[in-house]
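Bumping with the actual sequence this time:
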Amino acid sequence: MKRQTRKLLLNLATGVAVATTALVVFLPAAQAAPGYATANVNVRSGPSTGYRVVDVLQRGQSVDVQRCQGSWCYVVKSGPDGWVSANYLSSGSGGGGNTGPGFNFGITVPGGPSINFGVGNSRPPVVEPPRTREVCFYEGSRFRGDSFCLEPGQSARLPRYSDGIGSIENPDRYRVEVCTRSSFRDCRTYTTSASSLGDFGDYVEAVRVRR
């Protein structure tokens, strides 16, 4: 192959790669895919449930899908923009049509092939909702009565004249310290759920959850 021909093909391949990358990361607003929310869903600051919620997208609300990453799409709308799970987005203007995400963009490289880039797909993957990773404390036995929940790394001191803790729901088997002194002394440690703490629960003043 002649050097000049080989150089031309290399430049063309490089142009295609650069254009495709620009499409994914910097999609112009004019090429954004119109869509709408199929249910009320949180809008987050990043592409996972680990990011903070910045807004709530209402069912049927219209958005412009700028780009997608995995099963999350960045949307522009009235109010704060952000990331939404693709499972709650549909292409179109809202109120009907497709029930799953299926956004497509296309570019044509001068002197080269047309490239289509799909955002989402017609059959979105089934994504299980994230598990609630927290421990809940109930005033009564068998997980009844008033309750509060803590995540790993959190602690709480019970109000004065509290009725104590009657039961603990700990499905993820965290290390839970239940103490009869507010200074986190005289503690018992639980690594499973407990349907009844017995008389000990009446004297609990502080609780702490560890991984």
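The tokens above came from a reply further down the thread. The chain has two domains: 3-119, 135-210.
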